[in-house]
């Protein structure tokens, strides 16, 4: 559930950390320190914790390496830039080969035209034989060049396919949360735009906003590694309970979102309860001792897209339902038609 005060607190913490570390407040550096302050990227948290505890300086080189290695967006951008350069070189190489081939073809055409002119009039057998031998040699050279070009273009085609596969991998990485391996916020934003358009055309589309109950306690009591385990476990439960065009995404921190396509409100509520029930059966176990660390529960708010409704509007409504689930005791699913929502609105007024 989006919380403006919390987001502002993260931003203030990030700026304070940057100031204390003597780091210039550029947008790239702020992204890195915000990821650390919010805990949204455990890889960043782990590495920066070690640097801060060791009182090491954040040099420009270290910051650049952290951004490149720990922030998937930066990795994707760097990879895309590299692949773009490779593709440009490959295209130039192919164009150069085609240009050479065109010149060879033009020379061959000129040879044929010249031979045609020389065939006129009286020619002795020796001259004709010499002319034919010249044409045969030119034709063979043309055939060899065509065969060579075919092989070169096949190799280039293979390179294009390899680059296309790499680009597809980068695209998938840029749309995937590195910790939980489900869709990230960017992928969710794209999916929700498509869902809104489908709703405008009459399709039933519902949004589930999910939040792990008491997640901070897991991190405080057992550390970030256990918190990461919780996030991965919940993400797995979400992914296991959706199908087809549905999308489960990590929305931010301990929050998740699920888009259910072709699903009315009551059916979406059943899916949400199925997810909630699945998560509730999971128990965190300390591998070294076998001790049970606790039971995980989540709260879920469910809202249905109205035809033509703005994305922000349905997200706010699902967030309000999620708040209602938290307010009514957690480990609960509440949809926009639940009577408890009306009671909550009355008490808030």
Structural commentary:
- By secondary structure, the chain is of the alpha+beta class.
- Helix 11 (311-327) links the parallel strand 6 and strand 7 (333-335).
- Helix content is 67%, strand content 11%.
- The strands form 2 sheets. The chain has a 5-stranded mixed beta sheet with strand order 2-3-1-6-7, with helices on both faces.
- Helix 2 (27-38) packs across helix 3.
- It has 3 domains: 4-70, no CATH class; 75-174; 185-348, Reverse transcriptase/Diguanylate cyclase domain (Alpha-Beta Plaits, 2-Layer Sandwich), CATH 3.30.70.
- It has 12 helices and 7 strands.
Oligomer: single chain
What is the helix/strand order? HHHHHHHEHHEEHEEEHEH
Q: Overall pLDDT, averaged? A: 79
In CATH terms, what is the architecture of the largest domain? 2-Layer Sandwich
> Portion of residues in helices?
55-70%
- Which structural category do the helix and sheet elements fall into? alpha+beta
Unreliable stretches (pLDDT < 50, length at least 5) are none
* Overall 3D shape: elongated
What's the number of extended β-strand segments? 7
Number of domains: 3
- Could you name the CATH class of the largest domain? Alpha Beta
Q: Tell me about the biggest sheet?
A: 5 strands, mixed
By DSSP (H or I, 4+ residues per run), the number of helices equals 12
Radius of gyration: 31 Å
Give the DSSP E fraction (strand runs of 2 or more residues): 5-15%
Q: CATH-wise, what's the superfamily of the largest domain?
A: Reverse transcriptase/Diguanylate cyclase domain
**Between the first and last Cα atoms, what is the distance in angstroms?**
21 Å
Under CATH, the topology of the largest domain can be stated as Alpha-Beta Plaits
**Strand arrangement, largest sheet?**
2-3-1-6-7
């Amino acid at each position: 559930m989006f919380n403006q005060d919390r987001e502002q607190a993260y931003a203030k913490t990030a700026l304070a950390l940057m100031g204390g570390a003597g780091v210039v407040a550029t947008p790239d550096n702020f992204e890195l320190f915000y990821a650390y302050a919010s805990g949204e990227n455990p890889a960043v948290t782990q590495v920066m914790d070690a640097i801060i505890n060791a009182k090491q300086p954040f040099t420009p080189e270290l910051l650049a390496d952290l951004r490149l290695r720990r922030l998937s967006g930066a990795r994707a951008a760097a990879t895309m830039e590299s692949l773009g350069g490779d593709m440009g070189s490959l295209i130039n190489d192919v164009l150069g080969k085609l240009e050479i081939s065109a010149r060879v073809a033009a020379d061959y055409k000129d040879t044929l035209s010249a031979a045609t002119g020389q065939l006129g009039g009286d020619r002795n057998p020796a001259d004709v034989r010499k002319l034919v031998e010249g044409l045969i040699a030119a034709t063979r050279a043309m055939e060899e060049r065509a065969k060579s070009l075919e092989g070169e273009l096949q190799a280039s085609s293979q390179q294009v396919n390899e680059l296309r596969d790499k680009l597809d991998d980068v695209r998938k990485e840029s749309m995937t949360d590195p910790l939980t391996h489900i869709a990230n916020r960017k992928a969710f934003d794209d999916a929700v735009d498509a869902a809104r358009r489908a709703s405008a055309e009459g399709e039933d589309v519902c949004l589930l906003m999910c939040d792990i109950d008491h997640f901070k306690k897991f991190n405080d009591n057992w550390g970030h590694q256990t918190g990461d385990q919780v996030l991965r476990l919940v993400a797995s439960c979400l992914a296991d309970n959706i199908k087809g065009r549905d999308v489960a995404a990590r929305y931010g921190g301990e929050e998740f979102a699920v888009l259910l396509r072709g699903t009315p409100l009551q059916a979406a509520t059943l899916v949400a309860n199925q997810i909630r029930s699945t998560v509730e059966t999971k128990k965190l176990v300390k591998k070294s001792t076998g001790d049970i660390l606790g039971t995980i529960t989540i709260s879920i708010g469910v809202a249905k897209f109205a035809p033509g409704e703005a994305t922000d509007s349905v997200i706010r409504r699902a967030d309000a339902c999620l708040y209602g689930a938290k307010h009514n005791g957690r480990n609960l699913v509440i949809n926009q038609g639940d009577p408890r929502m009306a009671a909550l609105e009355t008490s808030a007024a």
